[in-house]
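User: quick one
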Amino acid sequence: MTGGSEPPLYAGRVPIHPRSVRGRFRRLKTGILVLAYGVYFLLPWLRWDRPAGPDQAVLFDLPGRRFYVFGLVVHPEDIFWLAGLLVIAALLLFFVTALAGRVWCGYFCFQTLWTDVYQLIERWVQGDRSARLRLEARSWDAEKLRKKGLTHLLWLAVAFATGLTFTLYWADAPQLVRDFLVGAAPFPAYATTLFLTATTYVFAGIAREQVCTYMCPYARFQGVMFDRDTLIVAYDRARGEGPKGRHRPVRGLRTRAERQAAGHGDCIDCGYCVQVCPTGIDIRDGLQYQCITCALCIDACDTIMDRLGWPRGLIRYTSESALAGSRTRILRPKVLGYGAALMVAVALLVWSVAARAPLELAVIQQRQPLYVTLSDGRIQNGYEVKLINKTGQALELVVRLAAPPGAELDLGRIRTVRLAPERMVRVIARVRQRPERAARRVRFRVEERAGRVPAVEREAPFFVPGTGG
Amino acid sequence: MSETRADRGRGAAVQTTGHAWDGDLQEFNNPLPRWWVWAFYATVLFAVVYWLFYPAWPVGEGYTKGPLNSITFEADGKTWTTHWNTRARLMRELKESPAAVRQRQYLEKVAAAGYDEILADPDMKGFAWSMAKGLFGDNCAPCHGSDGKGRIGLFPNLADDAWLWGGTVEDIETSIREGRRGFMPAFGEALGEAQLDDVAAFVLSLSGHEVDPAQAARGARIFRGDAGGCHYCHGMDGTGLKSQGAANLTDRIWTVAKVPASPSLEGKLEAVKRVVREGIRREMPAWKGRLDPVQIKLLTVYVHELGGGQ
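Assistant: Done. Structure below.
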């Protein structure tokens, strides 16, 4: 916009060229990155010995309606565990955010991890910040073309590996990779890989901090969970500025004593904290919504302080309360509440998974017909007995009635039910009782011949005409 | 909203929209990121591509159909090609989807297996049960009811353990395939009113009803003698001859006389008398031309399992 007070409607992205930094938080982040990449890229290749089913440790088999997670096989009717997992993830995010701010964003988020790797590639091919700035300013010659081209090529390779690996969780990994390369994989595998390759390349290579700033909803609603006691990455303004503000270490302002006498703080305005910031902000301006608390500015400032021989912590993890001179309260009602809810959710999920039955029994009373009078005057009700074998072995099952004693169970010509691993079967059953002493509830009992799984019992209603139920 | 780096660089006062709520609440007037505009153009481009590939614009009486937008499916022995729609896709999936293939495999297995094999195997029986439920609803339920209980006087109950024409799988299959013709002559003219009373009393006594013993004895003579000749079909003991489709009169099941519906003995007697007086003439059609052998097999298993086949 030329002149006038009207601001422009649109603003282009200002490219950010973060400088590299060493330090404890960088080491921690690199460790998490290696761990996360190791798990993500290697997990589909891990084999697992199962008595029945595929030999892949983690496999989400959608057509087969089974999720295999190591020793656990999740059936469609267990899908509420997924809801439990999502509730736990949400509560964990709330809890951690209330306690320690945007830890997720800074250390664990895919966007942060993948951007980190992309920057690593960039640095490896083009050099550090100053070299990249020089390359940026240079006109397009062979050198720039080669470096830029190689960078983007490597980015695409990582993006493709990321996309392909994601699909491996949904099918047999070695088979799918072979099929993929010879063009025989199913269409969704190609579509998913293409989509994720594109999004990874665009988000981690080009959009980067724009994703956190403009797209990510978590980034925004995490702000709601902040209060004055939440852990944030902050610049100690009182120490850094002094009464007269920050100042470069020019002659006469090189030692702390000289600076304090002149009214200047410890910040030498070197700008290292700004140069390393992946979202391009100046942490010295206070808490900003762009800050993902990656803590690289702490490493940068600590490096400078160490070199000057001054105490670390001009930029540090602290809270607004602590900066204002009071104590940081960690055990706040909010933190305790999130923590309690989190514990309950985790306990419920663990209990639910641990207490799952190896043999599932459901008895559904037939409603059409509700009952039949037999030639000898007895009343007959029909049932569908659903049996699901959740063990890895074939079961030899016997269906009988546990109660009432006088009732007769008719399974036709079925004596025992042989049920293959991971299979379901529906047995048609009929129960007969004399109307004058008919029990209104019957109890089915299913036993395994060899006693390999505990017997299960399930009650079902029995309809007797003229009794209203 | 926060300020942008550009604002800070200039050191200028922050631009706001000019409104203030509650005295001091203001809104920054930051520029949009430029890629949002590109994203908008991308949606426009998407719409244009969409128009090209999908039915979009009305043209005269018709509309632009878009290429690669037809679907072919088989139905009623013919091949149809039409514009893509979910119903056509359903028709195709009924033939080609993995579930349809699995169903065909089951059908072939059931077709090859004998009744003994099917009835003793929970897996095949469960499949036959589910599959035949639909067939029964389409073909049998109009008369026998969706629950198979039929209607006293009109259509036999298939869900109980009483069988006019036999309850083995072979008998049931014959009934479905060839149909049945149930017939009992009307005795209204051959027997007088008093004799009808006697026969009715005897018939009720067979199933344990308390009736006048003298009347029942007279009725027994008619039933077992040539005056009535009932025993030719119902047998001397009244249990009925399967070959004639004659009812067993000694059990609690009534397929024609509305005995259970009458609370009083008079009513029950009248119900039996009415059947003896007017006779029975009812028919079940043969299904061999209308259902294929596998469908008849499935229905046989279903009917056998409905209440208690033999």
